[in-house]
Amino acid sequence: MMNRFSRLEKQSENKPIRLHLALTDEALSNDQKVMMKRYGESLTGETITRDIVIPSDMPLHHLHYAIQKLFGFQNSHLRSFYLPEEVYSKLTNNTVKGWSELVGVLFQPPSEFERDLFWDDDYKRGSINTWLKKKYTGPYHYHGLLEIPEVAKRDVEALLERFKLLRVYESPEDCVGTLKPIIDLTLEEMADDLYIEAGTESLLERLEVRQVLAAQGEPLSDRNVFPVTHKLIYNYDFGDDWIVEITKVDGFDDLLSQHAISWFEIDQAKEIVIDQHRPVCLHKQGLSVLDNVGGLSGFANFLRTIYEGEDKEEVKMTRAWARSLGWSDKKIANNKIL
């Protein structure tokens, strides 16, 4: 049992932070929205949401594992955290120079995706949920070498040195182009002549969530880089293209006024965050999804098949396939999701 003074010391080091996560897809058809609302337990038919509290020192890297568990994924595809387009454009001025100056500070170096991002992806066998829990439970450490600022800087400098000149095409009719210094180009011009596998938008995963993300209404920093945004975007499985929009919320008035949660549950969640150094789910709207289903639109079609399908054999096989990926529509208490 933790004594009062130990609890106060831990609380001062690890203040719980509330996040709202919305799994969304703007391309859902009206029919798919009906399926999401009718069977997917989505309030609006357009999103699946989770409200969680996390330790204040949680890095993006470990938040990734929590997101996997929260929405029913199994860490079997690529992912990336990035900024809304308008924030990214403002920070980089859409130039190679602006971007390269923030590599190692905010953005991943160009070689990280292919060499270093999956440094702790060590799942072999057994329960994927148990493995994920170990990943999103603190204390947190990040050991990816390319995210060390000095190493990241050397990596981007090596890219700029290797490709000093790139060919720029002034128009679609320009088949020859003109060689120009890479450092003077826009990011779009660089991308036209140089392929970087993960692009230039991916954020460093060693960064703590609180460094990057400001609460709604909280001013962003003018003099320093951090915090940089009021919204983070998490992209998982670039084929299915799952998008989770992440915002930081001050207080719990909205959930309390909706009678979605009690003060007792809030206090209990905060205690777990402080004492066990792990995130807790406070509230959810919408079923868990599953990998390889085709994104949120595919999930809506999946729901139609298993609940309204007339071919009993197809329904049976579809349910069996979903179970093989860990999917279930069984109810589970919010505080037991993570």
Automatic annotation (TrEMBL):
Domain Plasmid pRiA4b Orf3-like: 46-91, 227-324
A Pfam short name: PRiA4_ORF3
Name of the molecule in the record: PRiA4b ORF-3-like protein
Gene source species: Halolactibacillus miurensis
